[in-house]
């Protein structure tokens, strides 16, 4: 099938390459020339494991191409829209300007039989409005939200947990479903569940899923605060909770909380949608989740201050991690950089390092100091704060790190390291949501 993918960012680039691997003829379109230039040469414009081989295979087999020109998608019978829907700069709502401009740009290429499929995350009602806007062309709209995670985007895209098709009832519904089934034939053949809903349900399924993950994370962080105050251990508690199949073990890692280009903006958009429709309990719940998440970052900054005898001024602090989570170079709403800024604003001499995200982070936060080399960042540190649990940080040898720092004091913002072995090597170790007499009086002089 001839398919276009409009918007080749973290979602669209992976989606385009995955569709090409299914045997479709795919054209990726984006207005960002640098991105298209990279993608056209088989290079991922961002760090995502497994994407480059998929891109290169698609390009070599002649199934994948990229362009900045909408005219290049004229031949496609199906268009996926994957542009960003970030939080508005002035409100909690999603900014739909890119989406609407793409719909306008697509208009001349729409004809009877064309299927337009939204993948971007949108407020409920957006799809119905777009369906109406394109109805005159004879093209039909469906909404097919995406659930992939950055860092495992290729695997999530090729083997998703489920497919959701939002398809309006009426003329063309059967054909829309049939076309989407053709697009995803290899996934369906593998037995992945496919749910067909109306447009509103598909839109809401996506944001409700992200909000549920955010809820779980803020819940465990709020419980972690009580653990810390009472001498309990949130990591042991989470392990015990997770063994209950009704709860499940995932998204229960307490610590710095959630960041990224999706969860934070989606709970805010969900909050705005609830407010618009007068659903106060949902509005309040989203507000609470957001507040707990902000507190999680603040609590780390506070713990850092305690570990530096209550004053951060002039203290050399090494922050391990800049990306919002491991295995990505994405720094959108990164807890690591938020904490780094808080510490720097209180006078600390902060040095941030990350295996992949230093360049992006430096461009956005020129006021912070960055080191690409871990050893250089650790050199002379009076406090080490782990903020993004990259595998290479998980594997650090406490004794080797101790030989670089000025004082062996570690704040593990992700509860990712083995406290016992760090303590055994002479480190003062502090986790998050893990109370103990040692930690409650963890000041150093
Ligand atoms: N990042 C992720 O893991 C996932 C993202 N989503 C949703 O997918 C959407 C896209 O997210 P990301 O890929 O993270 O954003 P992104 O910012 O990485 O990518 C968006 C792309 O759209 C392009 N674009 C914007 N306006 C355009 C226009 N008028 N014409 C052509 N290209 C245009 C941008 O240049 C950019 O490359 C959002 O709604 C997000 O919530 C959904 C699931 C996963
Ligand atoms: O809509 C989206 O874009 C995507 O948003 C999230 O994916 P992603 O933002 O890539 O990252 P996650 O792996 O969900 O992690 C989000 C944040 O939660 C944090 N987290 C995650 C798990 C955990 O136990 N503890 C925790 O603090 C991570 O560090 C990260 O900052 C969802 O997991 C995807 O299903 C969804 O498609």
From TrEMBL:
<feature type="binding site">
    <location>
        <position position="85"/>
    </location>
    <ligand>
        <name>NAD(+)</name>
    </ligand>
</feature>
<dbReference type="InterPro" id="IPR001732">
    <property type="entry name" value="UDP-Glc/GDP-Man_DH_N"/>
</dbReference>
<protein>
    <recommendedName>
        <fullName>UDP-glucose 6-dehydrogenase</fullName>
        <ecNumber>1.1.1.22</ecNumber>
    </recommendedName>
</protein>
<feature type="binding site">
    <location>
        <position position="30"/>
    </location>
    <ligand>
        <name>NAD(+)</name>
    </ligand>
</feature>
<feature type="binding site">
    <location>
        <position position="35"/>
    </location>
    <ligand>
        <name>NAD(+)</name>
    </ligand>
</feature>
<dbReference type="GO" id="GO:0003979">
    <property type="term" value="F:UDP-glucose 6-dehydrogenase activity"/>
</dbReference>
<keyword id="KW-0560">Oxidoreductase</keyword>
<dbReference type="InterPro" id="IPR036291">
    <property type="entry name" value="NAD(P)-bd_dom_sf"/>
</dbReference>
<feature type="binding site">
    <location>
        <position position="259"/>
    </location>
    <ligand>
        <name>substrate</name>
    </ligand>
</feature>
<dbReference type="InterPro" id="IPR017476">
    <property type="entry name" value="UDP-Glc/GDP-Man"/>
</dbReference>
<feature type="binding site">
    <location>
        <position position="206"/>
    </location>
    <ligand>
        <name>substrate</name>
    </ligand>
</feature>
<dbReference type="GO" id="GO:0006065">
    <property type="term" value="P:UDP-glucuronate biosynthetic process"/>
</dbReference>
<dbReference type="Pfam" id="PF00984">
    <property type="entry name" value="UDPG_MGDP_dh"/>
</dbReference>
<feature type="binding site">
    <location>
        <position position="325"/>
    </location>
    <ligand>
        <name>substrate</name>
    </ligand>
</feature>
<dbReference type="InterPro" id="IPR008927">
    <property type="entry name" value="6-PGluconate_DH-like_C_sf"/>
</dbReference>
<dbReference type="InterPro" id="IPR014026">
    <property type="entry name" value="UDP-Glc/GDP-Man_DH_dimer"/>
</dbReference>
<feature type="domain" description="UDP-glucose/GDP-mannose dehydrogenase C-terminal">
    <location>
        <begin position="318"/>
        <end position="419"/>
    </location>
</feature>
<comment type="pathway">
    <text>Nucleotide-sugar biosynthesis; UDP-alpha-D-glucuronate biosynthesis; UDP-alpha-D-glucuronate from UDP-alpha-D-glucose: step 1/1.</text>
</comment>
<dbReference type="Pfam" id="PF03720">
    <property type="entry name" value="UDPG_MGDP_dh_C"/>
</dbReference>
<dbReference type="InterPro" id="IPR028357">
    <property type="entry name" value="UDPglc_DH_bac"/>
</dbReference>
<dbReference type="Pfam" id="PF03721">
    <property type="entry name" value="UDPG_MGDP_dh_N"/>
</dbReference>
<feature type="active site" description="Nucleophile">
    <location>
        <position position="262"/>
    </location>
</feature>
<dbReference type="InterPro" id="IPR014027">
    <property type="entry name" value="UDP-Glc/GDP-Man_DH_C"/>
</dbReference>
<feature type="binding site">
    <location>
        <position position="121"/>
    </location>
    <ligand>
        <name>NAD(+)</name>
    </ligand>
</feature>
<feature type="binding site">
    <location>
        <begin position="251"/>
        <end position="255"/>
    </location>
    <ligand>
        <name>substrate</name>
    </ligand>
</feature>
<comment type="similarity">
    <text>Belongs to the UDP-glucose/GDP-mannose dehydrogenase family.</text>
</comment>
<keyword id="KW-0520">NAD</keyword>
<dbReference type="GO" id="GO:0051287">
    <property type="term" value="F:NAD binding"/>
</dbReference>
<dbReference type="GO" id="GO:0000271">
    <property type="term" value="P:polysaccharide biosynthetic process"/>
</dbReference>
<feature type="binding site">
    <location>
        <position position="265"/>
    </location>
    <ligand>
        <name>NAD(+)</name>
    </ligand>
</feature>
<dbReference type="InterPro" id="IPR036220">
    <property type="entry name" value="UDP-Glc/GDP-Man_DH_C_sf"/>
</dbReference>
<feature type="binding site">
    <location>
        <position position="332"/>
    </location>
    <ligand>
        <name>NAD(+)</name>
    </ligand>
</feature>
């Amino acid at each position: 099938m001839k398919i276009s993918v409009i918007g080749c960012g973290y979602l669209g680039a992976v989606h385009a390459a995955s569709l090409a691997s299914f045997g479709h003829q795919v054209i990726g379109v984006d207005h960002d020339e640098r991105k298209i230039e990279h993608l056209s040469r088989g290079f991922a414009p961002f760090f995502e494991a497994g994407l480059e081989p998929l891109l290169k295979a698609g390009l070599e087999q002649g199934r994948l191409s990229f362009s900045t020109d909408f005219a290049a998608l004229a031949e496609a019978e199906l268009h996926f829209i994957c542009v960003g829907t970030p939080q508005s700069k002035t409100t909690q709502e999603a900014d739909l300007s890119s989406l609407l401009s793409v719909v306008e740009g697509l208009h001349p290429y729409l004809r009877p039989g064309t299927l337009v499929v939204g993948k971007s995350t949108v407020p409920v009602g957006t799809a119905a409005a777009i369906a109406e806007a394109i109805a005159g062309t004879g093209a039909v709209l469906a909404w097919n939200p995406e659930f992939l995670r950055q860092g495992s985007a290729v695997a999530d895209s090729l083997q998703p947990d489920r497919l959701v098709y939002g398809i309006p009832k009426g003329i063309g519904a059967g054909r829309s479903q049939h076309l989407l089934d053709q697009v995803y034939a290899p996934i369906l053949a593998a037995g992945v569940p496919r749910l067909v809903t109306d447009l509103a349900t598909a839109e809401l399924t996506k944001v409700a899923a992200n909000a549920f993950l955010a809820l779980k994370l803020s819940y465990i962080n709020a419980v972690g605060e009580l653990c810390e105050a009472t001498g309990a251990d949130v990591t042991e508690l989470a392990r015990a909770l997770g063994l209950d199949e009704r709860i499940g073990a995932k998204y229960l890692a307490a610590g710095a909380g959630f960041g990224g280009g999706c969860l934070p903006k989606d709970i805010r958009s969900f909050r705005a949608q609830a407010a618009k429709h007068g659903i106060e309990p949902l509005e309040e719940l989203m507000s609470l989740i957001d507040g707990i998440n902000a507190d999680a970052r603040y609590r780390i900054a506070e713990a850092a201050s305690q570990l530096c005898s209550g004053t951060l001024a002039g203290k050399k602090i090494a922050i391990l991690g800049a990306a919002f989570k491991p295995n990505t170079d994405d720094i959108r709403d990164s807890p690591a950089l938020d904490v780094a800024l808080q510490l720097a604003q209180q006078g600390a001499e902060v040095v941030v390092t990350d295996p992949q995200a230093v360049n992006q982070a430096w461009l956005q936060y020129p006021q912070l100091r960055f080191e690409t080399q871990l050893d250089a960042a650790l050199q002379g540190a009076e406090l080490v704060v782990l903020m993004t649990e990259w595998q290479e940080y998980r594997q650090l040898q406490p004794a080797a790190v101790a030989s670089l720092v000025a004082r062996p004091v570690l704040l593990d913002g992700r509860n990712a390291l083995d406290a016992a072995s760090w303590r055994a090597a002479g480190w003062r170790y502090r986790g998050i949501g893990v109370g103990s007499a040692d930690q409650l009086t963890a000041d150093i002089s």
